[in-house]
């Protein structure tokens, strides 16, 4: 998902086999690259336990987090964690909400367009661009070797 002004993310879910609905749900995003957890529907209020979606505005979160001295969002892979009043490490119990951390998503910051002719790979292994000259060289070498073979073996 893009971290940009006017870009809201909606996460949705459904419940199956719940005999006891939690009073509140809490939703957080955990980032694997910096080990930070970011609140989406945070403590202490969370969202109603019957909710089946939450909207998140990462751009707005980043602005307010930075102003409050909290860690800013980074471009990378995240794991969505949804849990109830028992917390994110609650032991599964029949008929009750089991915390879920199975959804992965990525966030990125948009960049200005770069024409293909100006693009340079900064993460490449340093191999040189041989361009069309190398192909011409290979074609000539194959042609010369084929001609030599035909001369030697008529």
Molecular structure report:
This protein has 154 residues and is of the alpha+beta class. It contains two helices and seven strands; from the N terminus they run E-E-E-E-E-H-E-E-H. It has helices at 58-68, 131-152; strands spanning 9-12, 24-31, 37-41, 47-48, 53-56, 76-83, 100-107. Strands 2, 3, 4, 6 and 7 form a five-stranded antiparallel sheet that branches. A hairpin with a 5-residue loop joins strand 2 and strand 3.
Strand content: 25-35%
Give the distance, in angstroms, between the N- and C-terminal Cα atoms: 65 Å
Silhouette: elongated
How would you spell out the order of helices and strands? Answer: EEEEEHEEH
What is the mean pLDDT? 88
What's the short version?
This protein is α+β, with helices and mostly antiparallel strands and 154 residues long. Helices cover 21% and strands 25% of the residues. It has helices at 58-68, 131-152, and strands at 9-12, 24-31, 37-41, 47-48, 53-56, 76-83, 100-107.
Write the layout of secondary structure elements.
Blueprint: E1 9-12, E2 24-31, E3 37-41, E4 47-48, E5 53-56, H1 58-68, E6 76-83, E7 100-107, H2 131-152
Antiparallel strand pairs: 1-5, 2-3, 2-4, 2-6, 6-7
């Amino acid at each position: 998902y893009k971290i940009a002004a006017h870009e809201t993310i909606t996460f949705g879910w459904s419940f199956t086999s719940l005999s006891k609905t939690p009073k509140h749900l809490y939703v957080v995003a955990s980032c694997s690259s910096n080990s930070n957890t970011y609140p989406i529907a945070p403590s202490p209020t969370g969202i109603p336990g019957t909710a089946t979606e939450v909207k998140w505005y990462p751009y707005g979160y980043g602005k307010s987090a930075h102003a409050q001295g909290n860690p800013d969002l980074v471009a990378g892979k995240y794991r969505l964690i949804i849990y109830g009043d028992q917390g994110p490490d609650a032991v599964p119990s029949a008929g009750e909400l089991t915390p879920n951390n199975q959804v992965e998503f990525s966030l990125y910051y948009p960049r200005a367009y770069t024409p293909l002719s100006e693009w340079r790979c900064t993460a490449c292994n340093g191999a040189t661009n041989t361009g069309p000259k190398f192909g011409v060289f290979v074609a000539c070498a194959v042609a010369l070797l084929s001609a030599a073979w035909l001369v030697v073996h008529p």
